[in-house]
Every structure is written in structure tokens, then in C-alpha cells.
Amino acid sequence: MSRSAQLTAHRAAASALWELLRVDGPYREAWKQVARKEHLSAANGKVNVEAVRRLVLDRLWERGEFDSDPRSHENWQRRPWKDRIYGVANGRRLSIGTLEAFILAFGVSDDEAEPLRALHAGDGLPSPD
User: How far apart are CA 60 and CA 102, in angstroms?
Assistant: First the structure.
């Protein structure tokens, strides 16, 4: 797959993933619960990026994915995750590692995770003429 096609696939997967968080359902409710708890905005049908970041970091921390608490202001792992999540929110980039972290953190069902993985891999995208 060409670099251009790869970027297109990753952007399409980022958009599809963000749409899962935007529409009513368990994934939206998960980040909205964090937003309420942390007094973050959850209005206007928009996904609160900070609530998503906190949820992902919390769930990964709970599963032992980090050596130290990534939510700590001193932790060097905070910034890369902020950049990763904003990249998904803006539909610009999505690595397979970030996709898998979202799937794990939100408990995305296999029925919804597999199409995201396939889209990320470039399956189902129109081939260049």
C-alpha cells in the first residue's frame, strides 16, 4: 500500500472511531460519565476530547499498561497520549497501537472493532484509478 493510501486508510479509521464516540450508545455514555465526574463539557453533540483522553489513560492504567500513573502531571507519558487522542479527534492520524488502546479502553465490541481494524488496514477503501 502506498504511503498516500495508508494515510487515507488511517484517517478513515480515525473518523469512523470518532463517530462511534459521537453517536448515542455505550461509548458516548462512557466518556460522558467521565466528563460529568470531572466537570467537563458534554454539550452540543460534540465529543469532549479531554474526557476521552482521561478515560483512555485511566483504563490503560487500570490494566497495568504503564509503569507509573499516566494521569500524574509529572508523568512523561501524558503528552504523547494527548497528541494521539487529538490526532484521532481531528481525523488526521491513527496508529494501530492507538486504535487498539481505544478498543481496549472503551470495550469496543468485536463486531465494531473488526471493521475499524480492516479500515485502518485499507480494506474497503476504493482503489486508486
Answer: 9
Residue 62 belongs to a domain = yes
More confident residue, 129 or 27: 27
Burial call 28-45: b when 16+ CB within 10 Å, e when fewer: bebbbebbeeeebebeee
Instruction: Decide if 113 contacts 1 (C-beta within 8 A).
Output: no
| 57 occurs within a structural domain | yes
> Is 129 part of any domain?
no
Give the Cα separation of 11 and 87 in Å (integer): 9
Range of the domain at 88: 3-121
Burial of 63 (0-12, 13-18, 19+ CB in 10 A): exposed
- Average per-residue pLDDT for the chain: 85
